[in-house]
Design a protein that fits this description.
Blueprint lengths: L1 H23 L7 H7 L3 E13 L12 H5 L6 E16 L3 E4 L1 H4 L4 E6 L2 E11 L4 E6 L21 E6 L7 E12 L9 E4 L11 E3 L5 E8 L10 E5 H14 L5 E2 L2 E5 L2 H7 L7 E6 L4 H5 L6 E5 L2 E2 L5 H7 L6 E8 L2 E8 L1 E2 L4 H4 L7 E3 L4 E5 L2 H6 L9 E6 L14 E5 L2 E2 L2 H13 L4 E7 L5 E7 L2
Amino acid sequence: MNNLKKIFTYFLFFYFIFNIEGKAGKVPDSFADLAEKLMPSVVNIATTQTIKTTGNQFPFQFPPGSPFEEMFKDFQRPTERKASSLGSGFIINKSGIVVTNNHVIADAEDILVKVDSKEYKAKVIGSDPYMDLAVLKIDSTNGFTPVSFGDSNKARVGDWVIAIGNPFGLGGTVTSGIISARNRDINLTRYDDFIQTDAPINQGNSGGPLFNMDGDVIGINTAIFSPSGGSSGIGFAIPSSAASKVIDQLIKYGETRRGWLGVRIQEVTKEIAEVEGLKEPKGALVASVSEGSPADKAGLKAGDIILEFDGKEINTMRRLPKEVGNTEVGKQVIIKVWRNKKKISKKLTLGRLESSKEFKQGSKKPEIKIDTLKIKIRDVNDEDIQKRSLSKKLKGVVVVEIANDSPLARLLNLNDIILEVQKRPVTSSSFDRLVKEIIKKGEKTLLLTIIDSNNRRRYLGVKIN
């Protein structure tokens, strides 16, 4: 009898062990077959743009009419040079439709796409800086090998993934890892909902695909967390479920068509939740409502707390723009709000973000975080130029946030405009890349050309090491 009990116990032990191992899934022996199948669909992208600089060797300007202005004019002649950048992408249609990141092709004059060993010119069909996506068309009548999008909503933490791309311009590089986390919000874009992976991703991987073990694209590699600029095993990819909707719009219309509510929102703090009678701080607090917007027509008011949108719970403030933006324009939705310590429902028809007054005025320009300098910037827009009486041709970036430990703290002020770094003009899409290039060269000082809050142009030397 005792022997039977022992045998039964051993049987249960081994049954559970093998059953758990079976459910956990087998560790791949090799990714070679999968990589070989997918490599022809992954492309290397090279872009060029013209950088205009002045040959002035002096970090100052002479006042108009100064005798020195004529004497040193030979040192101030404008010069041009070509700058290049590298990225990755992948083919989604046999006619040569390519998906990549917007920041890979932003401000590019020429785009070259390399498929295997052949190079082709490409043009931009449409781009979306808000989700950092772009769609290209290869200029060729050849047939190409496409890949398909998978359902990123089914991807689980711990699943195996592989990334293929063009890190550091090396091309055709395969790395593997697992999904480390889901729904990451790193304040990079308004619609952050990243897949986090430990598959090594480096500079040049941007725009490349993140594949599951079925060979389907479940993410577009976009960002890395890296104090040193190299891979530290924390990469972020735009999930395919959200990206594919934007890509379809870019292909069909050449632009995005996002839902629009027409409210400015802020976080619900513990203090606000306590005053409003909420059990916990959640939802999105309406700070203001745009006149004539869908929210205005539906009767939403400043002070309302949006708890639910179209059947989806709004746990945090940043959840609302993602849900609204991913909802079809013209759809009727139910919104549940907290008002006067009770929940009420409102029905409204969503408008289109791109048709709103705020969007057209440029007030929705994305803000870019520059980790190397610990600041946030955005491009100069028409409103800046009008309010500050600046030249209509002026281009640069506006400083919108400076961390206390930033090397620019106490040197720059909010709303200062940076025109040039090391005498090279900058935009929000080129700023971070340029600063990293300078640091990589071992230079220890940045020379910034700025316009301060009094519209005075001046030069500023900043120690970065």
